Amino acid sequence: QEPVLEPGAVFLEENTAGALSLQEEKRLKQMGATVRNGYGYKKLNKVNEERERVARFVIEKMSIEQLSDMMSFYYMMGQICSEVLESKIQHLKLIHENASDDSE
Length: 104
Fold this sequence. Notes:
Structural class: mainly alpha
Shape: flat
InterPro entries: PuuD-like
GO cellular component, one term: cytosol
Number of helices: 3
Largest sheet: none
Helix content: over 70%
GO molecular function: hydrolase activity, acting on carbon-nitrogen (but not peptide) bonds, in linear amides
Strand content: under 5%
Distance between the termini: 53 Å
């Protein structure tokens, strides 16, 4: 990451002679953060692609029975997650409603 940013830093030093306004300095920092976030996103995306590739390789080796069992298990987990999530959302709504009633 640093070698990629180095030419830009050298250019700025040579062409601004340290005379950046506060607004220009703030914008450069924002641009730097954007570049760093882009590298992080790209790296995370690559890791996720590798995980998917490995998972696909393992799953392709499974028997029909194993695949069916796994699908049933994940369907059940999805149902449980949906129920728990709905319960938590309802709980938050009640807390919010009670807080609104108390402030009146």
